[in-house]
């Protein structure tokens, strides 16, 4: 499965993944497409933004190719867990 196919497939899960799984998907997607996080940290009141920023920042140093491989593996596990619509 390609990275693009995985990104398309994850949108068709029967059930929405947990918040932790969504953060992992977001972090790996951003790391795979953009690389290391170089954006300013969101303000204290932006809880969702801070969670996403922290998840992505936690992948710092992971190569884009490695992040894409991890993303594909995570999508495959989510498809097995939740099925496709």
Q: What this model shows, in words?
A:
It is a single chain. Helices cover 61% and strands 0% of the residues. It is mainly alpha-helical. The relative contact order is 0.25. The mean pLDDT is 96.
Q: What are the defining features of this structure?
A:
single chain, 85 residues, mainly alpha, Acyl-CoA Binding Protein, 4 helices
Summarize the structure.
With 85 residues, the chain is mainly alpha-helical. Helix content is 61%, strand content 0%.
Q: Would you spell out the secondary-structure blueprint of this structure?
A:
Blueprint: H1 3-9, H2 19-33, H3 47-57, H4 64-82
Keywords: Lipid-binding
Domain ACB: 1-84
GO molecular function: fatty-acyl-CoA binding
What would the CATH topology be? Acyl-CoA Binding Protein
Count of spatially separate domains: 1
Structural class: mainly alpha
The CATH architecture comes to Up-down Bundle
Strand tally: 0
* Mean pLDDT over all positions: 96
What fraction strand?
Answer: under 5%
Helix content: 55-70%
Report the radius of gyration as a whole number of Å: 13 Å
Q: Which CATH top level class fits?
A: Mainly Alpha
Shape: flat
Protein name: ACB domain-containing protein
InterPro entries: Acyl-CoA-binding_prot_CS, Acyl-CoA-binding_protein, Acyl-CoA-binding_sf, FERM/acyl-CoA-bd_prot_sf
GO molecular function: fatty-acyl-CoA binding
Pfam families: ACBP
């Amino acid at each position: 499965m390609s990275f693009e196919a995985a990104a398309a497939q994850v949108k068709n899960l029967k059930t929405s993944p947990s918040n932790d799984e969504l953060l992992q998907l977001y972090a790996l997607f951003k790391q795979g497409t953009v690389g290391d996080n170089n954006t300013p940290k969101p303000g204290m009141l932006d809880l969702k933004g801070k969670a996403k920023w922290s998840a992505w920042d936690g992948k710092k140093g992971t190569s884009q190719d490695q992040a894409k491989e991890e993303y594909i593996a995570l999508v495959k596990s989510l498809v097995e867990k939740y099925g496709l619509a």
